[in-house]
Design goal:
By secondary structure, this protein is an all-beta fold. It is 2% helix and 46% strand. A hairpin with a 6-residue loop joins strand 13 (118-125) and strand 14.
Length: 196
């Protein structure tokens, strides 16, 4: 007499939704099962972490077979940790067998929704060229430049052009130049949303 097991075993792999820390509002976790499954839905997903436990998160599941994508989103998540936990309750394998109830937790992504603040701006003349100045902007945390027009350079000392801008940790160094200098002021400011 042959024995047919009533339950199947399943290995689950969860991949991180991307870079961490992140200030995004939408995250996609890829779920890979060791076998094709049926019945996988948002009911098998719980959202965790200090950020995941705050505010209003929505979740949805797409895919088929052994590869699925869990999407979670929050229009205004708080800073903190985010992960998801899967339970195999109600799933069946390709042979139609109910799976043993197990849970798997994803890697954690750190959500950082606190914008960096500008702490200082310093001006250093280029010793080899009077028409060039290095502008060093220091921020409260490591930053990324999202656009070539992240800084506005103005003043009464002439028309200034930003030749280059380089981010390194929590500082950004600009090289600015003017072909017609006059006595006056030079100011640099960060455009909102262009540095994160």
């Amino acid at each position: 007499v042959g024995y047919v097991p009533l339950h199947g075993f399943l290995n689950v792999q969860l991949t991180s939704p991307g870079s961490s820390p992140s200030n995004a509002t939408d995250y996609q976790f890829t779920v890979t099962f060791s076998d094709s499954v049926a019945g996988f839905s948002a009911e098998n997903v719980s959202i965790g972490g200090s950020s995941g436990a705050s505010g209003t998160w929505t979740k949805s599941v797409t895919g088929s077979g052994n590869t699925w994508v869990v999407s979670v989103s929050n229009s205004d998540p708080v800073s903190g940790d985010l992960n998801i936990t899967l339970t195999t309750t109600s799933l069946t394998d390709s042979n139609g067998r109910a799976l043993f109830s197990t849970s798997t937790t994803s890697p954690t992504v750190v959500i950082d929704r606190t914008a960096p603040t500008l702490t200082s701006i310093d001006f250093t003349p280029d010793s080899s060229n009077a028409g060039k100045i290095f502008v060093t902007a220091t921020f409260s945390e490591a930053v990324t430049i999202n656009d070539s027009g992240a800084f506005a350079v103005t003043g009464t000392s002439g028309t200034w052009n930003v030749e280059s801008q380089t981010a390194n940790g929590n500082t950004i160094v600009l090289q600015v130049s003017s072909s017609a200098l006059v006595a006056g002021s030079l100011d640099a400011s960060v455009m909102p949303g262009f540095v994160t």
